[in-house]
Write a sequence for this structure.
């Protein structure tokens, strides 16, 4: 459904360290530098899509989307916990309930929420196979 997701960041190198560590838990290689002549960016590419971080093109400070969340699919609860731990260890902050299983209208999910150094809300989500 999505080709790419890009978030604005204020400290590009601090955010690169954060996302390099976070996305490494998913087997994604470190971000690839790109400068479009205006700002620095980093892209994390996979066969199914790309995630990017960028300094805002308009020169204004980056800010988190109020009410927005970017969800990352996890293969297991352990991968989700590692994703969350890597984020916290690299400048992120935990938010919402602690990582764990939730039961809701869409069934059982393992969720781990955190915010990146600029306040963007991220979610590690594992959906167990249906039995």
């Amino acid at each position: 459904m999505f080709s790419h997701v890009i978030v604005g960041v204020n400290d590009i190198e601090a955010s690169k360290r954060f996302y390099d560590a976070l996305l490494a838990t998913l087997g994604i290689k470190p971000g690839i530098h790109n400068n479009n002549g205006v700002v620095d960016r980093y892209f994390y590419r996979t066969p199914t899509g790309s995630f990017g971080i960028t300094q805002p093109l308009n020169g204004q400070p980056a800010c988190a989307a109020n009410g927005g969340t970017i969800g990352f699919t996890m293969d297991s609860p352990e991968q989700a916990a590692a994703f969350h731990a890597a984020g916290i260890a690299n400048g992120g902050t935990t938010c919402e309930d602690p990582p764990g299983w939730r039961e809701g209208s869409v069934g059982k999910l393992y969720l781990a929420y955190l915010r990146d150094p600029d306040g963007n809300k991220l979610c590690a989500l594992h959906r167990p196979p249906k039995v």
User: Anything to note?
Assistant: The longest strand covers residues 107-115. The chain is about 20% helix and 35% strand. Residues 12-24 form the longest helix (13 residues). Strands lie at 4-8, 32-35, 40-46, 49-54, 70-73, 93-94, 100-104, 107-115, 121-126.
